[in-house]
């Protein structure tokens, strides 16, 4: 099959590489020459485990083609995926302007043979119908198309594996032809098929991300009780998660959820709900607790840190990615600076992205050990494996005061006490 994917972020690029690897011819359309040139040379631009290898392999077979032009790609393709960003506007609403821009471009080059236009971008309920209207308005008379919503559930850090082994493939469409063609394309991919109407597919995506955010905020909410009652949040939530109706995933408390998806999708669902006059208190609380989780951690550090020299480990919004969009580290670093702390940071891959924001305001180390040298306290914001396997005795020797504030609960309090650390973690 020949397909086109518009957008080369985490969703677009990973999907393109995986479908090309299955033997399809895949066009990827971007809008920045510099980025397309890098991609053509096998540089994925983003850090995602396994992606570079998959990109380079499929560039060699010439099944993966990058371009800035719509004409050839759209004319040749049976399916065109939209996988562009839908960031938050100031009022929380999803900004759909890029989606509508690319849709107008697609419309101009549609051919007589049927094209399926499938939206992977996370879009507000009703957007796909609007896409249909825009295409009808801008296409040639004889061009034929149908639309579908194919929401994406991959996670950064495990995106390649998630694309190959999703729990479900959701296809929302009113067109049998679109459904059949999409089922054919997804044949080599695992996971249950869920065929629904357009609005359901659009809402499945928001419902999924908002329930994940709800679980995390609930875990943090329970951690607040644990902190004040002597209960241990890990023991409490592990036992809670053993109930199969609840499940153990996404119940890790910490400094809150970040990234380019959960925060923006919670805000968008609040916005949609408010417009539909639905009571959105539940997800408003999810968002409030997420901020509270960061601020409680901050308060503990301000209250107990024995000095102003902080070492920080882990800057990306989660491990195995260099993505710092809405990362808890951004909020915390700014607050530490506001409170007069001196900061030295380390992250295995996200360091340069943080440097673009905080520049000379903070210091940068090349290793976790360099970071803690002469520090009054170590703050852990993201749980990279490297930190779990670190030589803690060496860390203690290097620090000027043995204080650790662990925002992701990666160590055992008893062991830390034995090693002589003053160890503060979440909900214990
Ligand atoms: C999320 C969803 O998990 C994906 O299914 C979805 O496809 C994606 O958004 C999207 O909409 O594109 P992602 O943003 O990559 O994926 O990251 P998650 O693994 O969901 O983690 C989000 C945040 O929650 C991270 O900051 C992580 O540290 C935090 N988290 C996660 C916790 O604080 N506790 C947990 O128990 C789990």
UniProtKB/TrEMBL annotation:
Give the GO biological process terms.
Answer: polysaccharide biosynthetic process; UDP-glucuronate biosynthetic process
Please list the residue ranges annotated as the UDP-glucose/GDP-mannose dehydrogenase C-terminal domain.
311-413
Say which species the protein is native to.
Answer: Candidatus Roizmanbacteria bacterium CG_4_9_14_0_2_um_filter_35_15
Q: What is its EC number?
A: 1.1.1.22
Looking up InterPro entries in the UniProt record yields:
6-PGluconate_DH-like_C_sf (IPR008927), NAD(P)-bd_dom_sf (IPR036291), UDP-Glc/GDP-Man (IPR017476), UDP-Glc/GDP-Man_DH_C (IPR014027), UDP-Glc/GDP-Man_DH_C_sf (IPR036220), UDP-Glc/GDP-Man_DH_dimer (IPR014026), UDP-Glc/GDP-Man_DH_N (IPR001732), UDPglc_DH_bac (IPR028357)
List positions binding NAD(+).
35, 86, 122, 156, 264, 325
* One of the record's GO molecular function terms: NAD binding
Q: Which UniProt keywords apply?
A: NAD, Oxidoreductase
What name does the UniProt record give this protein?
A: UDP-glucose 6-dehydrogenase
Pathway(s) served: Nucleotide-sugar biosynthesis; UDP-alpha-D-glucuronate biosynthesis; UDP-alpha-D-glucuronate from UDP-alpha-D-glucose: step 1/1
What reaction gets catalysed by this protein?
UDP-alpha-D-glucose + 2 NAD(+) + H2O = UDP-alpha-D-glucuronate + 2 NADH + 3 H(+)
A Pfam family hit: UDPG_MGDP_dh
Which positions are catalytic residues?
A: 261
Broad enzyme group = oxidoreductase
Binding-site residues for substrate, renumbered to this chain: 153-156, 205, 250-254, 258, 318
């Amino acid at each position: 099959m020949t397909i086109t994917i518009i957008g080369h972020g985490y969703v677009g690029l990973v999907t393109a590489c995986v479908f090309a690897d299955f033997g399809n011819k895949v066009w990827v359309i971007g809008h920045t020459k510099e980025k397309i040139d890098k991609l053509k040379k096998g540089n994925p631009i983003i850090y995602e485990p396994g992606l570079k290898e998959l990109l380079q392999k499929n560039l060699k077979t010439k099944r993966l083609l990058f371009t800035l032009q719509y004409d050839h790609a759209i004319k040749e393709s049976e399916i065109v995926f939209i996988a562009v960003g839908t960031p938050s506007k100031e009022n929380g609403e999803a900004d759909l302007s890029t989606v509508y821009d690319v849709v107008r471009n697609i419309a101009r080059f549609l051919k007589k043979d049927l094209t399926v236009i499938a939206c992977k971008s996370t879009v507000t309920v009703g957007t796909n119908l609007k896409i249909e209207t825009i295409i009808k308005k801008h296409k040639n008379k004889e061009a034929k198309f149908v639309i579908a919503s194919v929401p994406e559930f991959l996670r950064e850090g495990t995106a390649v594996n998630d694309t190959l082994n999703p729990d479900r493939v959701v296809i929302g469409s009113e067109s049998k032809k679109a459904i059949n063609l999409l089922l054919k394309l997804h044949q080599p991919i695992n996971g249950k098929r869920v065929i629904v109407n357009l609005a359901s597919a659009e809402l499945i995506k928001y419902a999924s991300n908002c329930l994940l955010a709800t679980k995390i905020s609930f875990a943090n909410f329970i951690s607040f009780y644990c902190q004040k009652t002597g209960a241990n949040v890990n023991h409490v939530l592990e036992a809670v998660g053993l109930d199969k109706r609840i499940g153990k995933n996404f119940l890790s408390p910490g400094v809150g959820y970040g990234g380019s998806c959960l925060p923006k999708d919670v805000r968008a669902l609040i916005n949609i709900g408010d417009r539909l006059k639905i009571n959105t208190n539940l997800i408003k609380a999810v968002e409030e607790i997420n901020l509270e989780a960061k601020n409680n951690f901050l308060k503990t550090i301000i209250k107990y840190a024995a000095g102003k020299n902080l070492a920080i480990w882990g800057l990306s919004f989660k491990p195995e990615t260099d993505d710092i969009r809405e990362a808890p580290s951004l909020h915390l670093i700014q607050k530490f600076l506001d409170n007069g702390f001196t900061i030295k940071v380390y992250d295995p891959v996200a360091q340069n992205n943080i440097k673009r924001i905080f520049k000379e305001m903070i210091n940068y180390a090349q290793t976790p050990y360099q970071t803690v040298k002469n520090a009054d306290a170590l703050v852990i914001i993201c749980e990279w494996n490297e930190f779990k396997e670190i030589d803690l005795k060496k860390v203690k020797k290097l620090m000027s005061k043995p204080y650790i504030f662990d925002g992701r609960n990666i160590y055992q309090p008893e062991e830390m006490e034995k090693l002589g650390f003053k160890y503060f973690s979440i909900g214990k």
